[in-house]
C-alpha cells in the first residue's frame, strides 16, 4: 500500500526540492500536498489520510510546534519529522515532548533525510503488520468464543439474553445478526455408513475433527463469516452470517450447501446430507430452527442430498410432530435418568400408536424407525451400552420391523438404560467432579469443551448436557466465571500487570480479557484494582499500565 506524505514549509524552494530530490516512490510514499503553514496543513489533513509529515518549525500564522501539538491533541495517527535551521535545544525538547519521530537540521542533508524516512516508514509498516495480526488474532478469538456460546444456544442449554454478563461487546453483536443454517448429517441408516458403528472412539473423533476443518477452511476461503458447530457425532450445524439487506436466495444457499458437501466428499471421503432451514434465523430462533431441521432430516423416509425444512409441501403432519415432541421428551428423560418420566413417555407413545389404522401404518412405520435410529445415536453419545450389546441392537435395526416390534425395541432400550441409571448417575457425578477439577487446574490456558469431554471419556454433547445439569451453568459460563473470579483476586491482592493477569487466567489478548472483565464486573481491570489498593501502590500500577 502506498502511503501519503505532507510537506509543510513557508519557503517554496525547500518544498520543491523535497518533492524532486527524495525518492518517494522507492520509499513507498506519494506527496499528497504542500502547505506554507500549520493552518493549511491541518486543512489538507482533513482531506487526506497522512502517514508522514515533514514540517518546518518557524512558519507564519501557525508554526510547526503548534501544528504538531494540535495533531497530537486530535489523536491523528501520523509520524512526524521536524525540519529546522535552529540548533537551540529548547526546540528539540519541545519536539520530543510532542512525540516527533526525528529532528533534521537545515541545510537539509537529503541522503541522511532519505535514510531517516526509510527507517520511520519501515517501523510504521512493521507496526501496522503487527496490529493487523493482533486484530486477526483477536477476531479469531471472538469467533471461537461466539462458537462456544452459539453451541449452548442451539442445544437450548442457555437462554440468549443481550444483558447476560457473558456477552461482551463483540458477542453482543450476535443479537443483531441473522444466519443461514445448514445442518450436515451422516445418514446412519444407509448401507454405506455401517462401518461407522465399528469405528473406535479415536477414529470417530479424528474424522469429526477433519470434517470440521474442511468446512471451516472452505467457508473461510469463500469469504463467508461463519460458525461450524458439531452438535453430536456425525452431525454439524453450519451458521453463515448474512447482511440485513440480503434476500433469502434459495439457489445461492443451495450452492453453499453443495460446495460444503463436495469439499467433505473430496477431502474426507465421506458423503453427508444437508438440511437447510427455510429462512434466515435470528439468534433467539436458532434452537427452534435447529430442531425443525433435525426433525425433518430424521423423520424423512427418503433422503435427498440437500433439502429445505420445513418443507413447503407434504411436510410433517400435526400428528407426526406431536409424536416427535413426545419422542424428544423420552430421550430427554433417558438422559436425565428420570425413570418415571421414561415410563410415562413410552406409554404416551404406545397410546398414540394405538390409534394408527392400517392405512396410516405404512407411513408411521418408517417415521418410527427413523426415531429409533435417532434414539440409538443419542444413546451412543452417552456410551450407555457395552459394545457387544450395542452391536446386537444395531443388527436388530437392520431388519424390517412392524410397529409392534419397533415399540418393543424402544421399551428394550429404555429399560436397559433405566436399569443402569443408578450406576450411570454415580459415574456421571464422578465424571463431573473430575471435569471440574480438571478445569480448575487448567484455567490459565485456552480450554475447549471437546478437551474437557475427552479428559473424562464422554462425548462433547453428553458432557455439555451433564455439566449443565450438575452445575446449573454451561461449560463456557463456568470457565469464564472462574477466570473472572481468579482475575478479581489477582487484581486486588497482587502487583502483577493486567497483561500478566490476563495470560494467567487464560486470555492471550489483554483487550479481549478487558472486555469480558468489564462485562462481568462493570469496571475495567485498572479501575477495579484501584478500589482495593492504596493510592501509592495504585499510582505505580497505573504508570506501569499506561506505559504498556
Automatic annotation (TrEMBL):
<dbReference type="InterPro" id="IPR018060">
    <property type="entry name" value="HTH_AraC"/>
</dbReference>
<keyword id="KW-0963">Cytoplasm</keyword>
<dbReference type="InterPro" id="IPR009057">
    <property type="entry name" value="Homeodomain-like_sf"/>
</dbReference>
<dbReference type="InterPro" id="IPR051552">
    <property type="entry name" value="HptR"/>
</dbReference>
<dbReference type="Pfam" id="PF00072">
    <property type="entry name" value="Response_reg"/>
</dbReference>
<keyword id="KW-0804">Transcription</keyword>
<keyword id="KW-0805">Transcription regulation</keyword>
<feature type="domain" description="Response regulatory">
    <location>
        <begin position="4"/>
        <end position="121"/>
    </location>
</feature>
<keyword id="KW-0902">Two-component regulatory system</keyword>
<protein>
    <submittedName>
        <fullName>Response regulator</fullName>
    </submittedName>
</protein>
<feature type="domain" description="HTH araC/xylS-type">
    <location>
        <begin position="433"/>
        <end position="531"/>
    </location>
</feature>
<dbReference type="GO" id="GO:0005737">
    <property type="term" value="C:cytoplasm"/>
</dbReference>
<dbReference type="InterPro" id="IPR011006">
    <property type="entry name" value="CheY-like_superfamily"/>
</dbReference>
<dbReference type="GO" id="GO:0000160">
    <property type="term" value="P:phosphorelay signal transduction system"/>
</dbReference>
<dbReference type="Pfam" id="PF12833">
    <property type="entry name" value="HTH_18"/>
</dbReference>
<keyword id="KW-0597">Phosphoprotein</keyword>
<dbReference type="GO" id="GO:0003700">
    <property type="term" value="F:DNA-binding transcription factor activity"/>
</dbReference>
<dbReference type="GO" id="GO:0043565">
    <property type="term" value="F:sequence-specific DNA binding"/>
</dbReference>
<feature type="modified residue" description="4-aspartylphosphate">
    <location>
        <position position="56"/>
    </location>
</feature>
<keyword id="KW-0238">DNA-binding</keyword>
<dbReference type="InterPro" id="IPR001789">
    <property type="entry name" value="Sig_transdc_resp-reg_receiver"/>
</dbReference>
<dbReference type="InterPro" id="IPR020449">
    <property type="entry name" value="Tscrpt_reg_AraC-type_HTH"/>
</dbReference>
Amino acid at each position: 500500500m502506498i502511503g501519503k506524505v505532507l510537506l509543510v514549509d513557508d519557503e517554496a524552494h525547500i518544498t520543491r526540492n523535497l518533492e524532486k530530490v527524495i525518492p518517494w516512490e522507492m520509499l513507498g510514499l506519494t506527496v499528497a500536498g504542500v502547505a506554507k503553514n500549520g493552518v493549511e496543513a491541518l486543512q489538507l489533513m482533513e482531506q487526506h489520510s497522512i502517514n508522514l509529515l515533514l514540517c518546518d518549525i518557524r512558519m507564519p500564522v501557525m508554526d510547526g510546534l503548534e501544528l504538531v501539538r494540535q495533531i497530537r491533541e486530535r489523536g491523528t495517527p501520523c509520524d512526524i519529522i521536524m525540519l529546522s535551521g535552529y540548533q537551540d535545544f529548547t526546540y528539540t525538547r519541545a519536539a520530543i515532548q510532542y512525540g516527533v519521530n526525528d529532528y533534521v537540521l537545515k541545510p537539509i542533508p537529503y541522503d541522511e533525510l532519505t535514510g531517516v524516512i526509510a527507517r520511520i516508514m519501515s517501523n510504521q509498516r512493521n507496526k501496522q503488520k503487527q496490529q493487523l495480526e493482533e486484530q486477526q488474532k483477536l477476531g479469531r478469538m471472538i469467533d471461537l468464543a461466539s462458537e462456544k456460546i452459539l453451541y449452548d444456544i442451539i442445544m437450548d442449554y442457555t437462554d440468549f439474553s443481550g444483558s447476560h454478563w457473558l456477552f461482551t461487546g463483540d458477542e453482543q453483536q450476535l443479537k443483531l445478526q441473522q444466519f443461514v443454517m445448514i445442518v450436515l448429517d451422516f445418514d446412519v441408516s444407509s448401507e454405506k455408513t455401517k462401518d461407522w458403528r465399528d469405528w473406535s472412539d479415536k477414529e470417530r473423533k479424528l474424522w469429526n475433527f477433519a470434517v470440521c476443518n474442511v468446512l471451516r477452511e472452505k467457508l473461510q476461503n469463500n469469504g463467508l463469516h461463519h460458525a461450524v458447530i458439531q452438535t453430536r457425532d456425525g452431525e454439524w450445524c453450519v451458521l453463515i452470517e448474512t447482511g440485513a439487506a440480503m434476500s433469502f436466495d434459495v439457489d445461492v444457499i443451495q450452492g453453499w450447501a453443495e460446495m460444503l458437501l463436495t469439499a467433505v466428499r473430496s477431502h474426507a471421503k465421506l458423503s453427508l446430507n444437508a438440511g437447510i432451514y427455510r429462512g434466515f434465523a435470528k439468534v433467539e430462533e436458532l434452537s427452534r430452527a435447529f430442531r425443525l431441521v433435525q426433525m425433518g432430516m430424521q423423520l424423512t423416509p427418503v433422503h435427498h442430498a440437500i433439502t429445505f425444512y420445513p418443507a413447503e409441501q407434504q411436510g410433517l403432519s400435526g400428528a407426526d410432530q406431536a409424536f416427535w415432541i413426545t419422542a424428544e421428551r423420552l430421550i430427554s428423560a433417558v438422559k436425565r435418568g428420570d425413570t418415571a418420566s421414561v415410563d410415562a413417555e413410552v406409554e404416551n407413545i404406545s397410546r398414540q400408536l394405538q390409534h394408527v389404522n392400517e392405512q396410516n401404518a405404512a407411513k408411521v412405520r418408517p417415521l418410527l424407525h427413523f426415531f429409533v435410529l435417532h434414539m440409538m445415536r443419542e444413546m451412543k453419545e452417552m456410551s450407555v451400552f457395552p459394545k457387544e450389546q450395542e452391536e446386537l441392537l444395531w443388527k436388530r435395526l437392520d431388519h424390517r420391523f412392524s410397529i409392534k416390534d419397533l415399540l418393543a425395541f424402544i421399551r428394550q432400550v429404555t429399560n436397559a438404560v433405566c436399569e443402569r441409571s443408578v450406576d450411570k448417575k454415580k459415574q456421571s457425578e464422578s465424571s463431573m467432579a473430575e471435569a471440574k477439577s480438571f478445569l480448575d487446574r487448567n484455567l490459565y490456558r485456552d480450554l475447549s469443551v471437546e478437551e474437557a469431554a475427552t479428559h473424562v471419556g464422554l462425548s462433547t454433547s453428553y458432557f455439555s448436557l451433564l455439566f449443565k445439569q450438575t452445575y446449573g451453568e454451561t461449560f463456557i459460563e463456568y470457565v469464564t466465571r472462574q477466570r473472572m473470579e481468579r482475575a478479581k483476586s489477582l487484581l486486588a491482592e497482587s502487583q502483577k500487570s493486567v497483561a500478566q493477569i490476563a495470560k494467567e487466567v487464560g486470555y492471550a489478548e489483554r483487550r479481549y480479557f478487558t472486555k469480558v472483565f468489564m462485562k462481568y464486573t462493570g469496571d475495567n481491570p485498572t479501575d477495579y484494582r484501584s478500589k482495593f489498593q492504596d493510592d501509592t501502590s495504585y499510582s505505580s500500577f497505573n504508570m506501569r499500565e499506561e506505559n504498556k
